[in-house]
Structure formats: structure tokens, C-alpha cells
From TrEMBL:
GO terms for cellular component: lipid droplet; mitochondrion; plasma membrane. It comes from the Eukaryota. The chain crosses the membrane at residues 261-280. GO terms for biological process: glycolipid biosynthetic process. This is Uncharacterized protein. Keywords: Membrane, Transmembrane, Transmembrane helix. Coiled coil: none annotated. It comes from Gonium pectorale. PANTHER family: SACCHAROPINE DEHYDROGENASE-LIKE OXIDOREDUCTASE (PTHR12286).
Length: 415
């Protein structure tokens, strides 16, 4: 365990020891995020470092710098896309040269979207022999607390990034993907207006994290395409085989499934109101008096009562497209409980599964990557073993791998 304040770390260790006495033996290391030498001394002692410090644009640079410098794999739970872009620009080449994996967005931002889309595309390639032209993540019923740290990160983006950068984030689905060589296609942000999603049979309204998750999903597609091209150049791919990628003009849509146009309209109105509060300084100052402060979040009781489910839909890129259906979810609070477990499984994947990751020719081996492009099926397996659901339910009227006949996706269905 590492942090700035040894006394606070000792208190956390003591609390953990009451759950598991083995935690008594966990070493405590101290470092200040703004002191690179102290950070470097900690990072040099481990194979993988996990970070939950935020806002990452304010406190996260030294740790990533030192991870790359020391040759240590790194993963975090940021949703700060402009900071992720700068990380790719600054560290991707150096990390790739050193064999270091730097993974951002390894929590509820953006593992369900990223790994869920990978699962759908992998199924289509493996079982149906085709790619995916459009993938949908439809956020279903959930119960979770609100994080003061997430709010602080959002405010930091709005107050510290330039207007041109914010405009680029809001308008460009390929904001990260082009950094990995993927040309811009026809994909567009989901927008704020209600939309009827035909393949899923439901109305949907805007999901506030779509602007983060969609960029990661497209970045994964770019990294898979780059890896396939690399395999072709090295002669490792079979002649005439394209290699693994989602689709040539792959599009991604993410929203909240509402079941009706009226509810979707209410979600739009609520989202617009939240945006106005965050964008107008006086309203933002007033709202922050009543919302959790950094370091504050839901109680343990609230976290235990949490849950979430996303319905997943994909259209194949065939002349006569087929509809593939699936879902992912967890019976735990998404922002705290699920996120911490997702980050932990990414860390264990990097620390313990190196041989399996290296053996999969589809996966990127080093650089500033996404969870799916770096860990793909190995991480999916670990997440399922940890209690998460990531399942394919079927293809139109065909049977899925579990032998069950697919049924229409029902908005609001319980996990």
C-alpha cells in the first residue's frame, strides 16, 4: 500500500486486517504524488502500480512518468479523456519501447463498455465469421452512490481545459483512436436527444459517461487494427487474413435504455440541467455545497445494496446484418465496489497473466493502451470469475454458446 500519509495508510491496513488478518503483513510505502523521486522509489519496488488519485490531470503525471521510467506496468480509473490523450502523446512510444503497459479507464469508466464491446466483436469473429458495423451499450437499471472525486475531476476538466479541447472531446469519437493510426470514419457522438434504438427495441436517453466510454471503445478498435497490421508486416498472420478488429467503419452508441420516448425526454432534460449547473460558475459553486466533497462517497451499506446492468447489442457487417445480443452487470455498487474490483483484476492480469497475454496475437503488448486491447479475453475470464456477468444471449433466433435461444432485449430487465 502506498500513499502520502503513513498514519492514514496504517488505519486502512488495520481496518482491512479485521477482515483478513493477512493484511497485517502488507508493507506501507510513502510518497507524495507531486514529488517524482519519492514516487519513483515506490514504483521501482513493484511490477504493477494501481492508481486511484484524482483529478488525475492535477495529481497523476508523476506516477505515470515514473512507471514508464522504471519499467513498471500501470493502471488507473480515470475518466479524464483530455489527460488520457496527453498520456498517449507523451508516453506511448517510450512505454512500447520498454515493454510497459499503461492502462487508463480501468473502472466503471470504461470496462463495461470496453470489454462488453470486445466480447460482442470477438463472438462475431469467432462464431459468425464476420465483423461488427455497430455496437450498442444500453445502460439499464442500476443503484450506486455518487463520488465527490468524480465531481471534482469533471469540474477540473471544465475549468482547466481550453474551449477548443473541450469542443474536440464533445464532437470527435476518434479523439483517441487517431493517435493509434485509425482514420476517422462515420461514427458520431450519441448526442443529447432521445433516440429509438431499433435493434434493441427501446427508446434511449443520454448517458453522461458516453463521452468517455465511446472514445475508449474506438481506441480499442484502433489498437486492434494496429496490432493486426503489425502482424501482417511481420508475416505472422495467415495470407489473406485481415486480423482482428471490430469493423472497417465501426460505430458505437451508448445511452440509457428508457423504454419510452417520454422517459427518454426526461433523461435529456435532466442531463441538460446537470450540464448547465457544471458549466455556469455560480451554479457550480452552489451545487458543490450540497454534493459529496473529494474523498466522500456512498456508505458501506449503500455500496452493498448497489447493482448495475448494461444490455449489449451488435449488428454484423454482413450484407444481411444479424443482431447479436448480450449483457454485462454486477450485483455491487458500480462507482466504488465494482470499480475497485475491476481495477484489481486488471492489476492481477498484468502481474500474473503475462504469458497468456503475450500468447494472444490480437493483444497489444506495450504502450498506452485500453483494457480490452491489452487484456481482452484474459480480463474477461478474470472478471467473470470475480462475479461479474459478461454473457452472449444469442443471435436473432439462433442459439448462443450456452444453448439458450435469444430473446429480445427488454429495457429495464433485472440482472
Amino acid at each position: 500500500m502506498a500513499g502520502r500519509d503513513s498514519k492514514k495508510l496504517e488505519q486502512v491496513r488495520s481496518e482491512l486486517s479485521r477482515i483478513n488478518p493477512a493484511c497485517n503483513d502488507v508493507p506501507i510505502l510513502t510518497a507524495d504524488a507531486r514529488d517524482p523521486p519519492s514516487v519513483g522509489s515506490v514504483v521501482a519496488q513493484t511490477e504493477v502500480v494501481l492508481s486511484t488519485v484524482g483529478p488525475f490531470a492535477r495529481y497523476g503525471d508523476a506516477l505515470v512518468d515514473q512507471a514508464v521510467e522504471q519499467g513498471t506496468h500501470y493502471a488507473d480509473i480515470t475518466g479524464e479523456i483530455p489527460w488520457v490523450k496527453r498520456s498517449v502523446q507523451k508516453h506511448h512510444s517510450a512505454a512500447a519501447a520498454k515493454g510497459v503497459k499503461v492502462l487508463h479507464c480501468c473502472g466503471y469508466d470504461s470496462v463495461p463498455s470496453d470489454l462488453g464491446t470486445f466480447m460482442m466483436a470477438d463472438y462475431c469473429r469467432d462464431k459468425l465469421g464476420c465483423g461488427v458495423s455497430q455496437a450498442y451499450t444500453l445502460v439499464g437499471p442500476s443503484n450506486g452512490g455518487f463520488s465527490g472525486g468524480t465531481l471534482e475531476s469533471a469540474v477540473n476538466i471544465l475549468t482547466s481545459e481550453s474551449s477548443s479541447e473541450l469542443a474536440a472531446v464533445n464532437s470527435d469519437q476518434y479523439y483517441l483512436a487517431t493517435l493509434h493510426g485509425l482514420p476517422r470514419g462515420s461514427d458520431k457522438p450519441a448526442g443529447i436527444l432521445p433516440r429509438y434504438v431499433g435493434p434493441a427495441g427501446t427508446w434511449a436517453g443520454p448517458f453522461v459517461m458516453e463521452g468517455v466510454n465511446a472514445k475508449i471503445v474506438q481506441a480499442s478498435n484502433a489498437l486492434f487494427a494496429a496490432r493486426a497490421a503489425e502482424q501482417q508486416q511481420q508475416g505472422a498472420a495467415a495470407p489473406g487474413k485481415e486480423g482482428f478488429r471490430y469493423g472497417k467503419d465501426f460505430k458505437y452508441y451508448e445511452a440509457i435504455a428508457t423504454g419510452s420516448m417520454m422517459v427518454a425526454g426526461l433523461v435529456t432534460a435532466a442531463t441538460a440541467m446537470i450540464g448547465a449547473v457544471l458549466m455556469v460558475p455560480p451554479l457550480r459553486t452552489l451545487a458543490r455545497r450540497y454534493l459529496p466533497a473529494p474523498g466522500e462517497g456512498p456508505s458501506e451499506e449503500a455500496r452493498k445494496k448497489g447493482y448495475w446492468r448494461h444490455d449489449l447489442v451488435a449488428l454484423t457487417d454482413e450484407a444481411q446484418p444479424r443482431v447479436v445480443r448480450g449483457f454485462c452487470g454486477d450485483k455491487r455498487d458500480p462507482g466504488y465496489w465494482s470499480t475497485s474490483r475491476m481495477l484489481l483484476e486488471v492489476g492481477l492480469c498484468l502481474a500474473l497473466e503475462g504469458a497468456r497475454l503475450a500468447a494472444d496475437p490480437r493483444l497489444a503488448q506495450a504502450g498506452v493502451l485500453t483494457p480490452a486491447a491489452a487484456c481482452g479475453p484474459v480480463l474477461l475470464e478474470r472478471l467473470r470469475a470475480a462475479g461479474f456477468s459478461f454473457e452472449i444471449t444469442g443471435v436473432d433466433g439462433e442459439k448462443a454458446g450456452n444453448g439458450k435461444v435469444a430473446e429480445p432485449v427488454t429495457a429495464g430487465a433485472a440482472n
